[in-house]
Automatic annotation (TrEMBL):
Keyword Cytoplasm included in the entry's annotation: no
EC class: lyase
Ranges for domain Protein kinase: 1-123
The protein, known as: guanylate cyclase
Reactions it catalyzes: GTP = 3',5'-cyclic GMP + diphosphate
Source organism of this protein record: Orchesella cincta (Springtail)
Cellular compartments per GO CC: plasma membrane
Length: 123
């Protein structure tokens, strides 16, 4: 419900969605925090914070490849972040915990991955 509300509001997307800014209140209702931060940085002329490789594990690959998109966030990027959070719940661990790669290596792989395309000559 929270993501649906954000996506239909003036904010349009969270941009920094991860399990660290989702909290549960006294009635066991999930609340999303830190929304609207990209717009705040932009309107106030504040420098965009540098994220550590570990903080970028919830970021969609297309946002890792495009700095301007990452700064403003996207709705599909929020959906990707939500999927990573669901993976955390299912495996009861941090993002990509089933892999032995460091956050730095994962970030490099996601950032420079070329999409798979079919070779036209083979057709």
């Amino acid at each position: 419900m929270g993501m649906r509300y954000l996506h239909s509001s003036m904010i349009r997307c969270h941009g920094f969605l991860n399990s660290h800014n989702c909290v549960i209140d006294a009635r066991w209702v999930l609340k999303i925090t830190d929304y609207g931060m990209p717009a705040l940085y932009q309107t106030q002329g504040l420098p965009f914070p540098t994220k550590s490789p570990k903080e970028l594990l919830w970021t969609a690959p297309e946002l890792l490849r495009d700095e301007s998109l990452r700064k403003q966030g996207t709705q599909p990027g929020d959906v990707y972040s939500f999927a990573i959070m669901m993976q955390e719940v299912l495996v009861r661990g941090e993002p990509y915990c089933m892999l032995t790669l460091t956050p730095e290596v994962l970030q490099k792989c996601l950032r420079h991955h070329q999409p798979m395309t079919r070779n036209r000559k083979a057709l």
